[in-house]
């Protein structure tokens, strides 16, 4: 089976593409569940924007409290200042997160599928837990940029043992904003962290401990994949995606797995586990 062959490349490059990870009918079910969120949007006064460039969510209690719920985040270009939509509801959302894997039956089914468990086993994870999940829309025309980053900046563990599962629900191309990854960049450590602000009087609830690192654009390459593919992403590999100005969407479902045996999940991370802890992958 192809799963036993991916480890050398993952260790070398910090990512690997598993093609045809989910069947077409499974992708359809995931995408249908994601699109259903657009039919029941929050009221205008409760609509929040997610933007990796301006980082507006860093001042937003709604974002901070979204770790263990299903919360809605809009594209900045989708809303008027009063929360009214500028665009059709089907293309207004940036993402929905961050506990789809636990609170939504469809996403729970696929997150804890035997395929995912087999990958985690092949990665040598002993007691992996799912710490967050997101449905990412990257809608045609207004899908926003995701700046260069490492996932471990946000979900830091000591030692770092974090893996992202990024499932393409549309063909991801250069035109519609596919991932760009700097192969091998996972070997350079964690460059900065995104932390809960300890100053109770500050407007920023979340802050970075360092300014952004500088990365040479030439070190990145586009990762174009077909729908149903899974891109495994090492927690320290640097990646980004460009805005989607094309006429086709680039939906994806992504979740992150952390090792819990002999690994400490930082209490400074923005996302904190529920009282019962993150759900263990092998136990569900």
TrEMBL record:
| SUPFAM superfamilies documented for this protein | Clavaminate synthase-like (SSF51197)
Gene3D superfamilies per record: q2cbj1_9rhob like domain
Its cofactor is: Fe cation
Q: Which UniProt keywords apply?
A: Iron, Metal-binding
Molecular function terms in GO for this entry? metal ion binding
- Asked if the keyword Chloroplast belongs to this entry, the reply reads no
Reading the lineage from the top rank, the first entry is Eukaryota
What PANTHER family does the record tag this protein with? PHYTANOYL-COA DIOXYGENASE DOMAIN CONTAINING 1, PHYTANOYL-COA DIOXYGENASE DOMAIN-CONTAINING PROTEIN 1
Q: Which family does it belong to?
A: Belongs to the PhyH family. PHYHD1 subfamily.
The entry's protein name is Fe2OG dioxygenase domain-containing protein
Print the organism lineage. Eukaryota, Metazoa, Ecdysozoa, Arthropoda, Hexapoda
């Amino acid at each position: 089976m192809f799963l036993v062959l991916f480890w050398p490349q993952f260790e070398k490059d910090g990512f690997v593409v598993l093609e045809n990870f989910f069947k077409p009918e499974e992708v359809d079910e995931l995408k249908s569940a994601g699109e259903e969120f657009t039919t029941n949007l929050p009221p205008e006064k409760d609509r929040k924007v997610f933007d990796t460039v301006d980082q507006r969510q860093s001042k937003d209690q709604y974002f901070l409290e979204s770790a263990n719920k299903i919360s809605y985040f809009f594209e900045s270009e989708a809303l008027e200042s009063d929360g009214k939509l500028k665009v059709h509801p089907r293309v207004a959302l940036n993402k929905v997160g961050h506990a789809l894997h636990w609170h939504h039956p469809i996403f729970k089914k696929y997150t804890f599928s035997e395929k995912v468990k087999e990958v985690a086993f092949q990665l040598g994870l002993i007691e992996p837990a799912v710490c967050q999940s997101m449905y990412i829309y990257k809608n045609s025309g207004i899908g926003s940029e995701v700046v260069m980053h490492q996932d471990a900046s946000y979900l830091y563990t000591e030692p770092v043992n974090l893996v992202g599962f990024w499932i393409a629900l549309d063909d991801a191309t250069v035109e519609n904003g596919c991932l760009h990854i700097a192969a091998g960049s996972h070997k350079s450590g964690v460059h900065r962290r995104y932390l809960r602000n300890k100053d109770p009087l500050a407007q920023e609830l979340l802050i970075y401990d360092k300014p952004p690192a500088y990365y040479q654009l030439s070190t990145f390459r586009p990762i174009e994949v077909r729908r149903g593919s899974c891109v495994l992403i090492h927690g320290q590999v640097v990646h980004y995606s460009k805005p989607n100005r094309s006429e086709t969407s680039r939906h994806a479902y992504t979740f992150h797995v952390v090792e819990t045996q002999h690994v400490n999940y930082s209490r400074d991370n923005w996302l904190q586990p529920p009282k019962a802890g993150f759900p263990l992958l092998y136990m569900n």
